[in-house]
Amino acid sequence: MWSPLLLCLLVGIASADQHAWKTGQEYTYQVRGRTLAALHQVADQYTGIALKAQLKCQPKGSDALSCNIQRPQVAEIHAQLPGGWDSPLPEKKTNYQKFELSEKPFEISSRMA
C-alpha cells in the first residue's frame, strides 16, 4: 500500500531540481478553445465560435519563455450538441478559416515580483 506512494514521493523529490524546460528546445502545443451560447433548457442548439492554433515556445533561461502563435483559425458554430457545451464539435459542420492574429513573439515570465 505504501510502496506506490513512496515511489511517487521519490520521483517528485528527484525531479524537483530539474527545470521543466530544456534550453535550446522548441515546444509545440495544439491550442483549442470555444465560446458558445445557448438556451439549453429549451433546446441543445448552440452558437458561437471555435478557435485553434499552434503555440510554439522556446525557453529563455530558467524563468522565461519566448512564444508565438502560428496558424490561428476560427470557425462559426451553429450546431446541436446533445451532450452540452463540451461535446465534440461535428467536424463536417466545422469550417475553419484563417484568423488574422499577430504571430509576433511574446514572452511569458515566471519571475516573482
TrEMBL record:
<dbReference type="InterPro" id="IPR015819">
    <property type="entry name" value="Lipid_transp_b-sht_shell"/>
</dbReference>
<dbReference type="InterPro" id="IPR001747">
    <property type="entry name" value="Vitellogenin_N"/>
</dbReference>
<keyword id="KW-0732">Signal</keyword>
<protein>
    <submittedName>
        <fullName>Vitellogenin</fullName>
    </submittedName>
</protein>
<dbReference type="InterPro" id="IPR015816">
    <property type="entry name" value="Vitellinogen_b-sht_N"/>
</dbReference>
<dbReference type="Pfam" id="PF01347">
    <property type="entry name" value="Vitellogenin_N"/>
</dbReference>
<feature type="signal peptide">
    <location>
        <begin position="1"/>
        <end position="16"/>
    </location>
</feature>
<feature type="domain" description="Vitellogenin">
    <location>
        <begin position="21"/>
        <end position="109"/>
    </location>
</feature>
<dbReference type="GO" id="GO:0005319">
    <property type="term" value="F:lipid transporter activity"/>
</dbReference>
